[in-house]
Design goal:
The structure holds two protein chains of two kinds.
Chain A: H1 2-29, H2 34-39, H3 46-55, H4 62-73, H5 88-123, H6 128-142, H7 145-159, H8 175-209, H9 212-220, H10 224-252, H11 256-261, H12 267-276, H13 280-308
Helix pairs in contact in A: 1-13, 5-6, 5-8, 5-10, 5-13, 6-8, 7-8, 8-10, 9-10, 10-13, 12-13
Chain B: E1 6-18, E2 24-38, E3 43-47, H1 54-61, E4 69-74, E5 77-78, H2 84-90, E6 94-97, H3 111-121, H4 130-140, H5 157-170, E7 175-179, H6 187-204, E8 207-212, H7 215-221, E9 224-229, E10 232-238, H8 239-244, H9 249-256, H10 293-297, E11 308-309, H11 332-339
Parallel strand pairs in B: 3-8, 3-9, 6-7, 7-8
Antiparallel strand pairs in B: 1-2, 1-4, 4-5, 9-10, 10-11
Helix pairs in contact in B: 3-4, 3-5, 4-5, 5-6, 6-11
The chains are: A mainly alpha, B alpha/beta.
Organism (chain B): Belnapia rosea
Family (chain B): Belongs to the ABC transporter superfamily.
GO molecular function (chain B): ATP binding; ATP hydrolysis activity
Chain lengths: 315, 347
């Protein structure tokens, strides 16, 4: 078990290394010159451009630039944002809690809606409640987030005036206001995932409910609720756990459109701004942070997987 | 005591077929008018080809699925009249062993938890006494008591079937239905599990319904045999009589198909007709070597005293070919049983 864990941790290092090379290389393919962007008004002056390039080491060979960056990144120093002159690590740590709060809320909404809906619709297969749940899931999956977001702002902010249309208040500052500013974007993000979770839970439950061990449970004389909850659902959740962690990872990577609509200063907004401004250190830092979150989550997923699936434990 | 423990009367179960738009498109007549009685402490075997409705009949008998018509009486009580709660309470008296021991055990429950669940549910042993009862049951089926802490996936097929048997016995049932309980097992393990079942039936005085297509096993443990074809019983009687003097052409064909029996009967031809549109008249007429005009028109009735057969021609058929006992060692099962006689434990 410990050996497995260490081996699994060891896999993270090459993954991140390969990714860092890729992101470094891909940036060079982006059109535009960061020196030109940064020079602004003075972009006509070759001396200014040369100075900027020297300062940012853009005049050095690419491998040297990369090694320089890696050497500092492993020490936790992701450099400075070229545009706003702030440490990248600080920017990431500022935005991460925002995105994290949004992701957790969206994920909770998805879980609370998606899993019970999937269970109910599997148990009541081909009945009206199943059709309703499937219809809503399809709606959740297929509605574009920006459209749903705009509609919610129209209804709850403009028409009813219940919720603020945009902005963000940190949880530590004012919990109630914080929830009020994030509930709509969280619902927008969660609705799609709820639909996906519902469909997968339903399919897995239908599979489990037709298993002999469920018939065995009924034959034992167990109440149907116990049969569904203890025997069918616990087995059906195994694939749902995998899916859930992937979706949660995607949420943590930031939601570009949704954050834009609700003007929430999260990861999504940070990386979009950085890409548009050729702010390479920020792009690199955010991508690496996202990658680290993803590999950590998949490690957690594997551990969870063993918790829910005894067949994997002895392996 | 003469009243049968289980009595099925005119049981019928049709599974409706629907097209993509949900419109009814006929029905699979899985069980179509079956009446049977199982006396206390006896073993009834239900035999027939795949798809003849044997398994459906077993599930109907335990009311795991609802029949469309007919009645099921268990110990004189109409199971269909019971409330859901009363039925659940009744379930401790009747248990089921499934064919596939890899599917019938919940993969997320330890063996001990699976066996203890009915004990706790029906309050069969005093609180806290479950563990020792579980150990006792495991030993009874030839497994080590420590197996209780392990997971189903850690066991072989034969061991898992032993666990499934222990689980079925946990609630102290009076009736056990085995739905092909050995056919998914390795041949080398089958004989051991058959011996175990035979011992348990004898020692516990169980009433047992064995659903099987393996006539070798049936012959070994059944007191009575019912032969099923396309949802109906075509012949029913004491096992010895049915095996010695089968009256229905289908039974004769089945017996002839047992390897190593050395019986010659007209070979059975073709496939089982579709249970969605069974043939008119006698359902077997499309494959029967003796079929006449009457057979094509009128369905025969299951008639006779203690040995009943549903065949218009049963009194006119040529006598069944003499049952030759296969030469010693010719019977696969018997050979295996001899080999494993001191029923060794696997664990």
């Amino acid at each position: 078990m410990l050996a497995w864990f260490l081996r699994r941790l060891g896999q993270i290092v090459p993954t991140l290394l390969i990714l860092s090379v890729m992101i470094f290389g891909l940036q060079q393919l982006m059109p535009g010159d960061p020196a030109l962007t940064l020079a602004g008004e003075e972009r006509g002056d070759p001396q200014v451009l040369a100075q900027i390039r020297a300062e940012l080491r853009l005049d050095r060979p690419l491998p040297e630039q990369y090694l320089h960056w890696v050497a500092r990144a492993v020490q936790g120093d992701f450099g400075f944002s070229w545009r706003i002159r702030e440490p990248v690590a600080k920017l990431i740590l500022e935005k991460l809690p925002v995105t994290f709060q949004l992701a957790v809320m969206a994920f909770l909404i998805a879980l609370v809606i998606g899993i019970p809906a999937g269970v109910i619709s599997a148990v009541r297969r081909d009945r009206p409640v199943d059709w309703l749940a499937n219809g809503l899931a399809l709606f959740g999956i297929s509605m574009p987030n920006f459209w749903l977001g705009i509609m919610m702002i129209l209804l709850f902010s403009v028409q009813l005036g219940w919720l603020p249309p945009s902005g963000y208040v940190p949880l530590t500052e004012d919990p109630v206001q914080s929830l009020a500013t994030t509930i709509m974007p969280a619902f927008v993000l969660g609705s799609g995932i709820a639909g996906v979770l519902m469909r997968h839970t339903r399919a897995a439950m239908l599979g489990a409910l037709s298993q002999d061990y469920v018939r065995t449970a009924r034959a034992k004389g167990l109440d149907e609720r116990v049969v569904v909850g203890r025997h069918a659902l616990r087995n059906a959740l195994i694939p749902v756990v995998t899916l859930g962690t992937i979706e949660f990872g995607r949420l943590l990577a930031g939601a570009v459109l949704t954050e834009q609509i609700f003007t929430i200063p999260g990861f999504g907004k940070l990386i979009v701004d950085a890409v548009f401004n050729r702010d390479y250190p920020v792009v690199q830092g955010v991508v690496m942070a996202t990658a680290l979150i993803f590999v950590t989550l998949s490690l957690i997923a594997d551990i969870l997987y063993m918790a829910v699936n005894p067949r994997l434990r002895s392996a | 005591m003469n009243e049968p423990l289980l009595e099925l009367r005119d049981l019928r179960k049709h599974f409706p077929l629907r097209d993509a738009l949900g419109r009814a498109r006929g029905a699979v007549r899985a069980v179509d008018g079956v009446s049977l009685a199982v006396a206390r402490g006896t073993v009834l075997a239900i035999v027939g080809e795949s798809g003849c409705g044997k398994s459906t009949l077993g599930r109907l008998a335990l009311r795991l699925i609802e029949p469309d018509a007919g009645s099921v009486r268990f110990d004189g009580e109409d199971l269909r009249a019971l409330s859901p709660a009363a039925l659940r309470a009744r379930r401790r008296d009747m248990q089921l062993i499934f064919q596939d021991p890899f599917a019938s055990l919940d993969p997320r429950m330890t063996v001990g938890a699976a066996i203890a669940e009915p004990l706790r549910l029906h309050r069969i042993v005093p609180r806290g006494g479950e563990a020792s009862r579980v150990a006792e049951l495991l030993e009874r089926v030839g497994l080590r008591p420590e197996s209780a802490q392990r997971w189903p996936h850690e066991f072989s097929g034969g061991q898992r079937q032993r666990i499934a048997i222990a689980r079925a016995l946990a609630s102290g049932p009076r009736l056990v239905i085995g739905d092909e309980p050995i056919s998914a097992l390795d041949v080398s393990v089958q004989a051991q599990v058959v011996n175990l079942l035979a011992d348990l039936i004898r020692d516990l005085g169980l009433t047992f319904v064995l659903i099987s297509h393996d006539l070798g096993v049936v012959r070994h443990i059944a007191d009575r045999v019912a032969v099923m074809y396309l949802g109906s019983i075509v012949e029913e009687g004491a096992a010895a009589t049915v095996f010695a003097a089968p009256r229905h052409p289908y039974t004769r064909a089945l017996l002839a198909a047992v390897p190593g029996r050395g019986i010659k009967a007209p070979p059975i031809e073709g496939d089982v007709p579709s249970p969605i549109a069974p043939p008119a008249g006698c359902r077997f007429h499309t494959r029967c070597p003796h079929a006449e005009a009457l057979c094509r028109e009128q369905p025969p009735i299951l008639a006779g005293g203690d040995h009943r057969a549903a065949c218009h021609l049963q009194d006119r058929l040529p006598p069944a070919p003499p049952l030759q006992e296969a030469e010693p060692g010719g019977d696969r099962l018997r050979r295996l049983q001899a080999f494993f006689q001191p029923a060794g434990t696997e664990a």
